[in-house]
């Protein structure tokens, strides 16, 4: 029985259940390859492709997959789409493919993808599985792009390789090193938590302004 609307299926993974910023899934590539915007976009799009393709295929054949081998089947399906994404990146953008290294192959074991297959795609129609995959993949892509932009701008003074501040800018080298990934994620989570807390307070004040009147 359907309990959510198509819009909710689509938007759930973008914000309310963002895989990186809310569920803290897929942190390995989020921390490792987001030192530039180009790398972030490539990894995000590759993951989006794998998630969407595997969700549609697994939902299509969910009735014929025995429960005893469902996880093995999901991994094989995911690995097939990862191979396609890997070869496509190697052919189209070889420099970025080289920079991403083993992290493309590691999409196979990304718990975000396997989790969506087990929790959603294998239990719902193809249309709902596709919407869920698009939303989750978009949320993952947005999170990686935010981190990549933050790190590249501060760590190199560029955006997609284009200089922003001129030759006088002193880059924060730490931002393009591994510790920069942890710092960036921490800052983004802090800002999002502050925004959410402020939103909750405003909602509470609208519903019950009595404490504010008493304070006045």
How many structural domains in the coordinates?
1
How many strand segments? Answer: 2
Secondary-structure element series? HHHHHHHEEHH
Query: Radius of gyration over alpha carbons?
Result: 20 Å
Shape: flat
Judged by helices, strands and strand pairing, the structural class is mainly alpha
Account of the 3D structure:
It contains nine helices and two strands, in the order H-H-H-H-H-H-H-E-E-H-H. It is mainly alpha-helical and 216 residues long. The chain has one domain (6-203). It has a two-stranded antiparallel ribbon with strand order 1-2. Helix 1 (6-16) packs parallel to helix 7. The longest helix has 31 residues, at 126-156. The termini are far apart.
